[in-house]
Specification:
Strand content: 15-25%
CATH superfamily of the largest domain: Glucose Oxidase, domain 3
Helix content: 25-40%
Largest sheet: 8 strands, antiparallel
Structural class: alpha+beta
CATH architecture of the largest domain: 2-Layer Sandwich
Distance between the termini: 65 Å
Radius of gyration: 24 Å
Shape: globular
CATH topology of the largest domain: Glucose Oxidase, domain 3
């Protein structure tokens, strides 16, 4: 029976194996038991002693560098800058320490819509997110030390060589794949001996000894079935999605350490917690950067403390904005840096030339509506004794289903007929739900934002048998959105205009339709037919009058429930001075003002082809190295 949530599955389910707030009876007892055990194990899970103390009550009047945002990039920048013992570094974070729950990989979904999440939503727009509550897509972002690396699914995928070479060709000198590979490797503590070896060309793509631990996710039965089905379609089973090429499918590596989440807070801030020259202010909400209007030189950061008081802190050299693709442009605009007409409309006086802050927003669009029933498993059955065994196994050995993430641990890349270069243009993720797992459906529906009728429809599909969601992901969208301010109030969330499926040529839509076809082909393989795979229809009110499985139906479905993979980038675009849309130069300095750099996902000129966290950590490493080279030689 133990296979039900271990090597035999990893289907869903955070909820199958951990319970959810709607569980009653024995489920409630089990979930309460888990939470009680977590509290008792707090010294090991989410231990606050792992992180720097809050320095808010004893801040200096002035620092050499201030880093805004302790996320996937900011934690890296602050840690690396504080390696220089005579530099005084202040790291400002709007949230606090990671929670005990966040250390357990399979509980990722439970972290959304909590206090460690900014809980953003997109603005209603025609042609996207129409099937969600209030016609808004939900965009979780980390409000905690470690940022979104505390909320994500920990998948370590760098993107593709062509992504970075395209940045370089656009005039961003120093950002080619050859330039950035050493920074990827600098962070790593790769645990796989196989991936540490040189390939047939004598190349190495990984390294040991860095602060960020990488482990392979435990292989699962269903993941192996996916790999077999992909191979049947002619796709290679890869050992390394971060190697020479990415066309194919693989079991993934994650930012994991001994079966727990290895966020950038754990990897980069924990080793630095005793450095006297690094101060970390928690629950410090940055409201704007103060800039001398005459010299256009930034000199201080204004922030709101936990007590609600507004005050400012000076810096001698630079402020580094690492607040993410939503908050970094918001802070720049609140500081008077951004599109002039927009700033004037909301009563902010522009301080520098008309910079396109907030433009160029890109994200990876996914479609969670390709559903398939599979033959109901005989050996994957849940029971109270099994669940208790799972909890005990994780808390004592840090393995089993709680050490993995929702769904399966396989991902892969394909190249459609619409690809415009040698790179694959679609990625696939997979979620499995065991028969009658109503808790998993409720959790997914709550987080994604399905209407009740759609949730009920998904419950009916799951009641029939085991269910798999094959999720195509658009990895290089042509559609773009933007971030705008709603007002000059720094506590008000900005407007997020995602712009999904808005490219005039319709290429994004066409590629996603190809992704749905691939999902059908995958389920039509011999290995999947042996599992009695059958496509099922999700109820979407707006699409009910269309013929199921027609192109018109799938376009309607995509515009109803196409949503985010949590990868917004590009809103402080990096580019040469000749690029009218560039906000920062290739050294990440903001144009038109002195003393401000941006180092996070917002600087990406174009989104990388795959999960973004690894690339953001690399940006933090490269930014810190660039800053050191400049200021240590002055």
């Amino acid at each position: 029976m133990e296979e039900a949530c271990t090597a035999g599955s990893h289907w869903t389910s955070a909820s199958s194996c951990t319970g959810t707030s709607g569980v009653s009876g024995v489920g409630t007892v089990l979930f309460t038991s888990l939470i009680t055990t977590l509290m008792e194990s707090q010294r090991q899970l989410g231990n606050p002693d792992d992180y720097p103390d809050d320095a808010t009550s004893h801040l200096l009047d002035e620092y050499d560098f201030i880093v805004v945002g302790a996320g996937s990039a900011g934690a890296v920048v602050a840690s690396r800058l504080s390696e220089v013992p005579h530099w005084k570094v202040l790291l400002l974070e709007a949230g606090g320490d990671p929670t005990p729950t966040s250390d357990i990989p399979s509980l990722s979904l439970y972290l959304q819509k909590t206090d460690i999440d900014w809980q953003y939503q997109t603005e209603p727009e025609e042609g996207m997110c129409q099937g969600f509550r209030d016609k808004r897509c939900y965009w979780p972002r980390g409000k905690v030390l470690g940022g979104s690396s505390v909320l994500n699914y920990m998948i370590y995928v760098r993107g593709m060589k062509g992504d970075y070479d395209a940045w370089s060709k656009a005039g961003n000198n120093g950002w080619s794949y050859e330039d950035v590979l050493p920074y990827f490797k600098k962070s790593q503590d790769m645990t796989s001996e196989t991936l540490l070896r040189k390939d047939s060309n004598g190349d190495t793509y990984h390294a040991r000894g860095g602060p960020l631990t990488l482990e392979e996710y435990e292989r699962t039965e269903f993941g192996e079935i996916i790999l077999q089905a992909a191979k049947e379609l002619g796709y290679e089973n890869l050992d390394d999605l971060n190697g020479k090429h990415q066309l194919g499918f693989a079991n993934v590596f994650g930012t994991l350490r001994n079966g727990t989440r290895c966020s950038t807070a754990k990897a980069f801030l924990s080793p630095a917690k005793f450095r006297e020259n690094l101060h970390v202010a928690k629950y410090a909400h940055v409201t704007r950067i103060l800039i001398n209007d005459q010299t256009k030189t930034a000199h201080s950061v204004e922030l709101r403390g936990k007590d609600g008081k507004i005050f400012s802190v000076k810096f001698r050299n630079e402020v580094i904005l690492s607040a993410g693709s939503i908050n970094s442009p918001q802070i720049l605009m609140l500081s008077g840096i951004g599109p002039q007409e927009h700033l004037k409309e909301i009563g902010i006086q522009p301080l520098v030339n008309n910079l396109m802050v907030g433009e160029n927003l890109q994200d990876h669009l996914i479609f969670p509506g390709a559903l398939f029933n599979l033959k109901k498993s005989d050996n994957l059955q849940l029971s109270p004794s099994l669940l208790l065994d799972i909890y005990y196994k994780y808390l004592t050995r840090r393995d089993g289903p709680l050490s993995t993430h929702l769904g399966t641990t396989v991902t892969g890349f394909i190249k459609t007929k619409l690809a415009d270069d040698e790179r694959p243009d679609l990625q696939f993720h997979f979620i499995g739900v065991l028969a009658n797992d109503t808790n998993a459906v409720n959790l997914l529906s709550h987080v994604i934002g399905f209407y009740d009728e759609t949730t009920k429809s998904l419950q009916e599909v799951v009641s029939l048998s085991d269910t798999v969601l094959i999720i195509p992901t658009l990895i290089r969208p042509k559609s773009k959105g933007r971030i705008l301010l709603k007002s000059g109030n720094p506590l008000e969330h900005p407007k997020i205009l995602a712009g999904y499926l808005s490219d005039p040529e319709g290429t994004d839509l066409a590629r996603m339709l190809e992704g749905i076809k691939f999902a059908q082909h995958l389920m039509n393989t011999k290995v999947m037919k042996a599992k009695e795979g059958k496509q099922k229809k999700l109820f979407l009110e707006a699409c009910e009058n269309l013929e199921f499985d027609s192109s018109e139906y799938w376009e309607c479905a995509l515009r109803q429930i196409g949503t985010t993979l949590y990868h917004p980038v590009g809103t402080c675009k990096m580019g040469p001075s000749s690029d009218p849309d560039a906000v920062v130069d290739p050294e990440l300095k903001v144009y038109g003002v002195k003393g401000i750099r941006v180092a996070d996902a917002s600087i990406m000129p174009s989104i990388v082809s795959g999960n973004t966290n690894a690339a953001i950590i690399m940006i933090g490493e490269k930014a810190a190295d660039t800053i050191k080279k400049e200021w240590l030689h002055k």
